[in-house]
Every structure is written in C-alpha cells, then in structure tokens.
Amino acid sequence: METKIISTPKNLQVLYEDNHLIAINKRPGDIVQGDKTGDAPLSEVVKEYLRKKYNKPGNVYLGVAHRLDRPTSGIVVFAKTSKALPRLNKLFAEKDAQKTYWAVVKNAPEKPSATLIHWLKRNTKQNKSYAHKHEVPDSKKAILDYRMLKQLDNYFLLEIDLKTGRHHQIRAQLNALGCPIKGDLKYGFDRSNKDGSIHLHARNLSFIHPVKKDMLHLVAPPPDEPIWNACL
C-alpha cells in the first residue's frame, strides 16, 4: 500500500469559507465523521484548522451537513454556525443542491449519455448496496444522469449528475451498467488502487447560500495523480 496523504490543519484544501460555511476538498482516505475505526475525522481536522486560524480558545462549533464515502474525494461542506446547520441539512435532505461527480471507469458505457434508474437495496452487514432493475422489498429508487467526457488510454471519464442520494449509489449503479469505478473492489473493479482510493470525485456543488441567499458554485480539483491529471 502506498502511504496515503490525509488532510491535516496545515495541508487542508479549503475551497470556500465565510462566517457561516466552510467547504473542503476532501482527500481520498479522509473520513468525514468519526466511526468505529477511531481515525481522526475530517470534521475534527477542520475544527483544529479554525481554532488555529482564529486563535479560538476552547471548543469550535462545526456541523456536518452531508458526507462522502471514505475512498472518494471532493467537496464537503460544513456549517460554522448553529444557524447555518439546520438550513444546510434541509438543503441536502431536500435535494436542493446540484451535485456533479467525476468517475473514471473501466469500460465505455453503450450510450455516451443516459439516465440510470435502479432500485437499490442496502446490506448493512456488508456495507454494500445492490442495484435491481425492478423494485424489490426494502429497496429505494436511485436515479442519476451520466455522460462520457473523455476517453483515456485505458479508462473512460464520466460526469454524473446525482438525482437521488442513496448509499453507495454511483458505485452500485455504474457497476450494474458494467462500468465499475477504477479501484472499487467492492463494486466490480478487479484490483484496488495502491492508496486505497477509488476514482470517484465530487467535482461540482451548487446551492443557494442558507444565510446570504446568493448562489454558490463550488469546484474541486481532483487528486494530483496521473490518471486524474489526464482527465483535466
């Protein structure tokens, strides 16, 4: 395994910050919120960054409004005030944020662009979602639009507009399409990436600022490595 670079208060990739919000370009391997691994979550790294930047004694308020899978990179927005958090939560829950992802996949899809509709059933023991063509008990409808942006030497770059936010949705739906994401062993790719990442990146996020009410457009550069660099 390669040593993966994880975010620290010193190397944090801040995309946007004001009094209410802070948006981070998450590195693959960063965990957004604490879990059973006990690894330091990105939320704590951002708190420490804010504490040092503003010389704050004691606790720093930071609210987690949404998450990204650990091996995924890209935009994560945190609330800096208790006023902004419930509004951000509502915005993400009601799908009022436009999210665009980039995925590097093994095979070219049959159609250069299409809408995918599946019914996803989550297996919590395996931490995996299974995509079905028709509704099955306890499944949830999953919708995304994709289009092919670029053909690389051995892979294909897809842009994905997420219409619903289901567990592992992009990973499960692209695997069901026969286009597993590079490095994603759990969803059909034949080998893992050396650093444990997968080539899925939350590229763009647009939403109306929960306090200022103006439109925010955030763009995150993908990780600095050869395959992502070839996509730019």
Describe this structure in words.
With 232 residues, this protein is α+β, with helices and mostly antiparallel strands. It contains four helices and eleven strands, in the order E-E-H-E-E-H-E-E-E-E-E-H-E-E-H. The mean pLDDT is 95. It is globular and about 55 Å long. Strands 1, 2, 3, 4, 5, 6, 7, 8, 9, 10 and 11 form an eleven-stranded mixed β-sheet that branches. Strand 8 and strand 9 form a beta hairpin. The protein starts with 13 loop residues before the first strand and ends with a helix.
For the CA atoms, what is the radius of gyration? 18 Å
Principal-axes geometry comes out as: globular
Report the major sheet: 11 strands, mixed
**What integer is the average pLDDT?**
95
- Give, in order, the helices and strands: EEHEEHEEEEEHEEH
Distance between the termini: 26 Å
Question: Can you summarize this structure?
Answer:
This protein has 232 residues and is α+β, with helices and mostly antiparallel strands. Helix content is 16%, strand content 33%.
Q: How is this fold's topology laid out?
A:
Layout: E1 14-17, E2 21-26, H1 42-53, E3 63-64, E4 73-79, H2 84-93, E5 98-105, E6 113-123, E7 128-132, E8 140-151, E9 156-162, H3 169-176, E10 200-208, E11 215-219, H4 226-231
Parallel strand pairs: 4-10
Antiparallel strand pairs: 1-2, 2-4, 3-4, 5-9, 5-10, 6-7, 6-8, 8-9, 10-11
